[in-house]
Amino acid sequence: MELIQTISRLRSELDKLRSEGKTIGLVPTMGALHAGHASLVERAVGENDVVVVSDFVNPTQFNDKNDLAKYPRTLEADCDLLAKCGVTFVFAPSVEEMYPEPDTRSFSYAPLDTVMEGKYRPGHFNGVCQVVSKLFLIVNPTRAYFGEKDFQQLAIIREMVRSYPFNIEIVGCPIVREADGLALSSRNARLSGGERKQALQISATLFASLDYAKEHSLAETKRFVEDRIAQADGLRLEYFEIVDGNTLQSLGEWNESDYVVGCITVFCGDVRLIDNIKYKG
Questions:
Q1: What is the pLDDT of residues 153-172, one digit of tens each?
Q2: DSSP string covering 68-94, please?
Q3: Between the CA atoms of 113, 117, 123 and 129, what dihedral angle is there, to the nearest 10 degrees?
Q4: Which of 148, 215, 197, 200 has the alpha carbon at shortest distance from 175?
């Protein structure tokens, strides 16, 4: 495994491998890697000749400077994990390398990016599309791998690839959870021991809602989740929406879609956690 920090060097290495007919897998990350990232990487290693993992905390997707400052940065530990996974290259550029000048490009994929995270984090998905499109142009991968925990992000990246001249297969990978159900996230490292126990109510509530939904309406299921989170110590619900998994638009009845997903964002202390659950599809 080789750590590369410049675009020119990475392109040079990949051009040689591509000329030999090698397939290239890309796993974009913001570092602070955990077993969820490892599952993406392992799938990429199994499906490609060469695997690039980017390790870059992208400033343009943060609309809260404090959140950006607090985001964990663990490059040395990340490289240790990735070497064990069989990665070919770790791409860890500086902010100046990725943004030698401000990126003024604007990406709009309404209504996918105007609801949920798009509503509560204005500009977030524009920043995501900026950095992911840059990585696609730099790496020119055969396949790129993203986790389904960031369900809305995955839908928007798929739309970006459809609308942009990218010939890339986007591979969505299932949520990876701790044994107790907590969805793996780099932000979990910021939880205190007590907060982590409180955060378990998020996934526990979503799992309970699967059974509840079998005998109750969509509106009743939505209230069930909202009420349980409201009653949980240390948690503050930002939103819970039950949406069509393709359009991301809120539904009123179960029979309005064959692909139904519940998407939730909850503050545990000052740590913002996201999760989702599939009801149909």
A1: 999 999 999 999 899 999 99
A2: HHHS---HHHHHHHHHHHT-SEEE---
A3: -60
A4: 148
Active-site residue among 34, 37, 124, 216? 37
Do 202 and 165 sit in the same domain of this protein? no
Model confidence over 190-221: pLDDT tens digits?
A: 999 999 999 999 999 999 999 999 999 999 99
Residue 216 designated active-site:
no
How much is the pTM?
A: 0.95
**What is the rounded CA–CA span in Å between residue 101 and residue 96?**
8
Domain membership flag for residue 140: yes
**Of 143, 173, 203, which residue constitutes the final position of a domain?**
173
Strands (E) located in the chain? 2-4, 24-29, 50-55, 89-91, 143-147, 169-173, 235-244, 260-268, 271-280
Whether 140 and 221 map to the same domain: the answer is no
- In the block, which residue shows the tokens 């990406």? 107
Q: Which of 12, 272, 176, 141 is nearest to 132 (CA)?
A: 141
Strands of the 235-244 sheet, one edge to the other: 235-244, 260-268, 271-280
Report the alpha-carbon angle 202-260-157, nearest 5: 85
Q: Is residue 281 part of a domain?
A: no
- The two tokens of residue 264 are 């939730």
CA distance 46 to 30: 22
CATH classification of the domain holding 59: 3.40.50.620
- The number of folded domains in the chain is 2
Q: Are residues 72 and 168 in the same domain?
A: yes
**137: nearest Cα among 101, 167, 103:** 167
Those residues with Cβ within 8 angstroms of residue 69's Cβ, 6 or more apart along the chain or in another chain: none
- How far is it, in rounded angstroms, from Cα 172 to Cα 245? 13
SS3 235: strand
